[in-house]
Write a structure and sequence with these properties.
By secondary structure, the protein is of the alpha/beta class. It is 42% helix and 18% strand. Helix 7 links the parallel strand 7 and strand 8.
Length: 326
């Protein structure tokens, strides 16, 4: 017979993402509505090991839906990846009579959650919160919509100065292991090329394209995912400008501005729904799964699968970019 769920906890882990606070708010209020005690864990898995627990109520999450970052703070914990660290974390959950855990984060967060669930059979539900949108089992992760809109707004401003000075800009965006930010934003800003980990990089082809484009356009934008195999934006800019003469080239690293800021309407709604559904999943005795939304419907995906796979890039979008960037 399954133990009745009376007390749940939640944490945010890994990189922060706009909309995490909306998800926290949804978990807390949905939990309280269903008669659950709700505990927040500060600083992710590290806080779980250190027993940094705070009781949460409806007023604890008032006026946070519009705020970026996470009120529970976040960190990456190497200790949690050890047997001793995970054992301490589990002991703290049992000690505080917590019946289920909701983790909000990305790939690393879910790997830890999956191990906690499989090793101790402890009910854990994952909520996908990462700006990279690289989780299988949901169409859009929390933070992705805000991040790409932040990038587009920044590159639009860069285009203004590029046009004024007839410059070539290499703009590096986040995406160490996935190029979904680069792909969507590159299309949205009319970039001449997008370089990302999932697609083979042909520097010579890029050079030929820029040589031909020099006679047609005043400004040119190259979007580069930070994990691209050809190197970072500075290295790629060096390789290109050595071969293509006459360009006034500049490099811009957008960096962590992509993580911050007020979450978009889409991220607030998406995060609220995912947090709400995570509570329902625990009440339905689900565990070891990620809650996602696929084709507007709630979907459950095993943490092991969601944590080890990434969304496939749409090859048709790459083809479209090639046509439209002529």
């Amino acid at each position: 017979m399954k133990k009745r769920m009376l007390h749940i906890a939640l944490l945010t882990s890994g990189g922060d993402a706009p909309g995490m606070n909306a998800a926290i708010r949804a978990v807390v209020r949905a939990g309280i509505y269903h008669g659950l005690e709700v505990t927040g864990i500060l600083h992710g898995y590290e806080g779980l090991i250190n027993e940094e627990f705070v009781k949460l109520n409806a007023s604890s999450v008032a006026n946070i839906i519009q705020r970026g970052g996470t009120i529970l703070k976040t960190s990456r914990s190497l200790r949690f990846m050890t047997e001793e660290g995970m054992a301490r974390a589990y002991e703290n959950l049992v000690k505080n009579k917590i019946d289920g855990l909701i983790t909000i984060g990305g790939d690393g967060t879910f790997r830890g959650a999956e191990q906690l669930n499989s090793k101790y059979n402890f009910p854990v539900i994952g909520v996908p919160g990462t700006i990279d949108n690289d989780m299988v089992g949901t169409d859009m992760t929390i933070g992705y919509d805000t991040a790409i809109n932040t990038v587009v707004a920044a590159v639009d401003k860069i285009r203004d100065t590029a046009e004024s000075h007839d410059r070539l800009f290499f703009v590096e965006v986040m995406g160490r292991d996935a190029g979904l930010i680069a792909l969507r934003c590159g299309i949205a800003v009319g970039a001449e090329a997008i370089l990302m980990p999932e697609a083979p990089v042909n520097i010579e082809r890029l050079i030929d394209k820029l040589k031909n484009a020099k006679r047609k356009k005043n400004s040119k934008i190259i979007i580069i995912a930070e994990g691209d195999e050809a190197g970072g934006a500075f290295e790629i800019a060096r390789k290109v400008t050595e071969k293509v003469k006459g360009y006034d080239a500049r490099v811009t690293i957008l960096g962590h501005i992509q993580r911050g800021g007020t979450p978009s309407c889409m991220d607030r709604v998406n995060a609220s729904r995912l947090g709400y559904e995570a509570v329902l999943a625990l009440l339905k005795s689900q565990q070891g799964i990620m809650v996602g939304i696929v084709n507007k419907e709630v979907a459950y995906t095993a943490l092991k699968k969601s944590a080890k796979h990434m969304q496939k890039l749409d090859s048709e979008l790459l083809k479209m970019l090639e046509v439209l960037s002529m």
